[in-house]
């Protein structure tokens, strides 16, 4: 831990708070325990990692003088803008974290920027998860359990369906039909067929007899365990049950997961948001620094982020503001932040990157 503390003290000097930075420590294993397989970091579980964020003071205290210094003699503001095709903010952090890597030598550092993506366009790392496990900012999630249960309803495993059907038959049919059903399972439980006894019964016995009995009328049978080549069910049994009047199908609240964008008329999935205990939404994750050869003690515990929004209503309101009204910046004030972005910053970040130059035009004069 002593080595890690020395390294972190050096990092705090390289990325000081007075320049608008905060660094929060976590173990790679803590992140991996929450991230899906698509976003895992392939290092030892105790590997030291740090998530870096920018605070409200960064924009005017650090970014402004750096961008002004990039203007060449005789270069107009428009010419300056043309040189930053990916935007000046990305250029700044690419340069800044390259210097961080140099400053930390001979210790190896891998930098994962907030704009780095994999070949499939997925982010290389989940910044909000890093922020949460490190204690930097609490991540408020949409009610994902609703999506989980919807998936379970549509793609339930064959054996789970069979158990449910079996229970239903035993409760609903206690006469000869139920006795026949139980007797058939006992007889065939040890048979050579590799499929479940319930599937064998419905496929070979009962429905086979039904198809024969209906001749010459043709009947096509779609079993509850039949799937397509992509493992999706051939038919949605719950929907059939609902439209036929057999059983009411209660859907999860999709409006909690998806919303209709009035501008594009496209249905979009809601995203969660992170709120800082001091800055609310007036901050940004910038990078994750990984130190492959530096390990934290097994007993190391990250700080826990404070939950500022202590009711479901407050959380849902913040998530709705973040997804549906992000341009007006109201989501940033959730949690009653004590330090916020300036009006100039709010205008700057509310615009697409190529339109932001007009907001900061008065930062520049033509150098002669």
Automatic annotation (TrEMBL):
Pfam families named among the record's database cross-references: MMACHC (PF16690)
GO MF annotation terms: cyanocobalamin reductase (cyanide-eliminating) (NADP+) activity; demethylase activity; FAD binding
Named cofactor requirement(s): FMN; FAD
Main location (coarse class): cytoplasm
Annotated keywords: Cytoplasm, FAD, Flavoprotein, FMN, NADP, Oxidoreductase
One of the record's GO cellular component terms: cytoplasm
InterPro entries the UniProt entry points to: MMACHC (IPR032037)
Any GO BP: cobalamin metabolic process
Localization (cell): Cytoplasm
Domain of life: Eukaryota
Family statement: Belongs to the MMACHC family.
Protein name from the UniProt record: Cyanocobalamin reductase (cyanide-eliminating)
Species this chain originates from: Toxocara canis
